Amino acid sequence: MTFAEVVKLVQETIPKGGRHQGVKAYILPRRIAFETLCTIEPWAKFVLAEEVAHQLWVVFIDEAPEQAWEHRCRLILVGDEIAEVLMDLSIHFQPNMFREMEPLSL
Q1: Fewer CB near the terminus (10 Å): N or C of the chain?
Q2: Which domain of life is it from (predicted)?
């Protein structure tokens, strides 16, 4: 998948309006291996199936950007080879890789 294809897929995954109005999205601007994800985000190895051991695109959705942390957010993992959303996880923290992410227009 190209970066543009990932952006389009994520835009189609997040509905417009409602509770999604005002959310902010960020994307890791490169693919990442499952093993690398588990090194950066240690919780991932306990949550994700080992079958996810290929290249991933990672998108972070901040559902309440005006609030301090500990609110609901989403981490969307897109499989590079199969071009579909593999996981859409509800999390309550900012991921460790956040500083490497770039804003994504929804």
Answers
A1: C
A2: Bacteria
